[in-house]
Predict the 3D structure of the following.
Amino acid sequence: MALEDIIKPENLVYKKPDIMNDNPMHYCPGCSHGVVHKLVAEVIEEMGLVEDTIGVTPVGCAVFAYNYIDIDWEEAAHGRAPALATAIKRLRPNKLVFTYQGDGDLAAIGTAETIHACNRGESIAIIFINNGIYGMTGGQMAPTTIEGMKTATCPYGRDYKLNGYPLKITNQLKDLEGIRYVTRQSVQNAAAVRKTKKAIRKAFENCMDGKGGASVVEVVSTCSSGWKLTPEKANKWMEENMFPQYPLGDLIDKDANK
Amino acid sequence: MSEEVMLMKGNEAIAHAAIRCGCDGYFGYPITPQSEVMETLMEVEPWKTTGMVVLQAESEVSSINMVYGGAATGKKVMTSSSSPGVSLMQEGISYLAGAELPALIVNVMRGGPGLGTIQPSQSDYFQTCKGGGHGDYRLIALAPASVQEMADFVGLAFDLAFKYRNPAIILADGVIGQMMEKVVLPDFKPRRTDEEIEKQCPWAATGRKMSRKNNIITSLELKPEVMEQNNLRFQAKYKQIEENEVRYEEILCDDAEYLLVAFGCSARICQKACEMAREEGIKLGLLRPITLWPFPTKAIASYANKVKAMLSVELNAGQMVEDVRLAVNGKVPVEHYGRLGGIVFTPDEIVNAVKTKLM
C-alpha cells in the first residue's frame, strides 16, 4: 500500500490541535510543559473557544507559551498573572481567561495575587505546573522543592531548618470560599494525561457557565534538566518522591454530587 | 446643556470624570491622601449605569497589574494611589510602557521618602519624569493645579494614552487632591463598544478572530537586535510626543524680569506671590508646566533671553530645577526654592526667596 493511500483524513486517528503551530519548542526533552500545552490547546479547540480565549503567560519556562498556541495572549510580570486575569475576565466576562504558571511564579513571588484572585472567586482557570524547581533561571530552589532535593541554591539538598518547608499551596487554596475546583494531576503516562485533560476541561467549563468561582489545576511535573535526570528517570523520581508530598486527585470540587 | 457648577475635592473630581469619560475599569488600593477616588466610585456604583468595573485590589502591585491586564484588551483602565503606593507600581508601569499599552495612573503625592507623611509634597517628580521603573521609557505626565484640571485631565490623559499607546500619569499632590473647589464636570461620554475597541485597538488581546493573526501583548524580546529596534521605536514615539504635546501656562510673563517655574499646587501659590511681588515693584512672572513630560523646554529656553533669573519653586529638595537648568543652559541663574516633608510654602516665603536668591 502506497503512503498516499494511508495518509487520508478518514484514516486519521490523532493530530495535533490546529492552534498549535510548528514553532520548535524551547522546552527540554522530557519536560512536562509540551504535553500540558497540547492539552490546553486541545480543550480550547474542542470547546470551540479559539476566538474567545485570552491566555496569560507567566515568567518562567512557560513565558513563551504564546509562541506555540495561536490564541490571544498577554505576558505577565513574575507572579502577577492572576491579577491580569482578574481584570481581563471582569472587563470581558464572556471570554475564557486562564493563567499558566509555574511554582516559583504562583507560590513564591505571586502568592498574594494567587490567593486573592482565588478568594475573590474570579471566574478564571489557573494551570499550575509544579516541578519543584526554577527551570528558566537554571534550577534554583522553588517554594515547592521537597526536603533533601538538590538545586542550584540548595546544593546540599533542601534543609527545613535553613530553607523552611515546601509550600503546598493548593492545599490552602482548596479551603478558600471563592474556590470552585482544585485538583492535582500529572502527565507522565497516557492515563495521567487523560485525567489532566479532563481536569483542564472541567476548569475551563467552570469559567464559562457564569456561576463564578476559581478553578486550579496543579500538574505535578518533571524538569529533567533541573533535576539532572534522564526523562525516564525523572518520571520515576517524580512518582517516588514528589507524589508522596503532592498526592494526586481532586482536592475540592464544589460541583461534585450536585 | 447648561453647565452645572459643583463643589468637590480634587480626588472626587477624578472619580466623577473617570465615569463621565467612558472609563471601563478602575483598580485601586486605599492610601492617604487619595482614598476618596475609590470611595467615590464605590459610592456612585458606576457598574449599575455605565458598566464601569471598580475593584479594590489586595495591593498596589496587584492594582497596577490589573490595569496592565485590562489595558491589554483595549479597555480604558486606570488606577490611583499616592507616593509609597506608586513606588510599588513601578514594575507594572515599566511593563505597560514596554508593552505599549494605554492606561492612566493618578499619583496624589505625599511627603517621603519611605512611609514619610500624609501631607502634600511634589517629591515624586524624578520618579515620574525620569523613569521610576526599569528601562528607557517615558510617561506622559500631566500636573493639575486645580480641581477643575483634575476633572479635565482624566479625559485628556486617556486621549493621549490611546493616541500614543503609552501610559499617562496625572501627577497631583495632597493639596489638589484634598482641597474643595468649584468644578464643571465633563459631559457624559459613553464607554466604547467592543466593535469600536476592535477598530481603535487592532493590537488588543480580545480573543483571536480567525481573520487575523493572534495578538500577543508582551514586553519580552530575547533577541537583542530586535529589542534594540523596539527601543528605537519607543524613542521615536517619545520624540513625537515631545514635539506635539507640550502644554504650559504663562502668567504675568509679558514684562517679567524674574521668572518662577512651578507646577501643581506650587503654581497656585506662586501666582499669588507674583501679585504680591508686583505690588512691591518686582516684575515677577510664572511659567507653569502642565505637562511635566514632555517638559516645556523650548518655552523656558526662550525666557532665558528675556529675564534676569529664574526660580524653580517646588515642594521638594530640587527636582524639576534640573530640567529648568537644562533648558536655560547657563544663560541666566536658575535657583531652587522648596519646602520638604509635607510643609507647604506661603506666597510671602516665595517673594522672600526671589529677593534673597535672585536679586
